[in-house]
Design goal:
This protein has helices spanning 5-15, 20-27, 31-41, 61-69, 82-91, 129-142, 160-177, 180-193, 199-209; strands spanning 51-55, 74-79, 98-102, 114-120, 143-154, 212-220, 223-229. It is an alpha/beta fold. The chain has one domain: Vaccinia Virus protein VP39 (Rossmann fold, 3-Layer(aba) Sandwich), CATH 3.40.50. A seven-stranded mixed sheet has the order 3-2-1-4-5-7-6, sandwiched between helices. Helix 3 (31-41) packs across helix 4. The longest helix has 18 residues, at 160-177.
Amino acid sequence: MKKTRLRQVFEHFDGEAKVFDEGILKSVPHYRQMIGVIVEMLPFPRQKKVILADIGTGTGNISYNIKSAFPNSELVCIDLSPRMLSVAKEKLASFSGVEYIQADVSAYRFDRRFDAIVSSLTLHHLETDADKHAFHKKAFRALKKGGYFINADIIIAPDKKMQDVNLAKWQGFILKSSSREFAADRYKKYKAEDRPAVLLNELDSLRRAGFRSVEVFWKYYNFAVYGGVK
């Protein structure tokens, strides 16, 4: 039986959990800077007790940065992969106030209100723009008034020539960081598993979901950090 795309995504990340952190630095240009922007854009006083959700927690890199910056925060970490969450638990073991939930983010129903919802390299796995918009609306409803939604993700250009440049820059970075075999494997998984959206469409989707002050906080070719305020 042919695997569903979601099953492919699950097996990919669950299988790479132990080596994810090494691979992501070879795969995503300026990765540390990108996730750092997410934390920098959160407007809360450092000692305030706020509640945040990390969608697609992975190995906990964003969550670690959030807890380091906001030590009194309560954090809900949601990911499909139990092995990813296991690595995240180890990474965040020194922090209190962290909850871990294994769930498919597209089907997950938020059961509380958040001061911020963040995500990194996850929502591009949603199949269509309509699916992404449905998640944006769900995130909007789950936020407190004045709450922030911030997403770091792979995106595509609205024009083929622009997209060709984006992909060439990305593939060039991976080749410099690793091997041809690794680069070929990343691109194969990208084509099979990923469904990135046009950035301008994402910004429009956020506005239609109800967000204000929609903004692009950071961009490097086919990677961007963007979001809005409820």
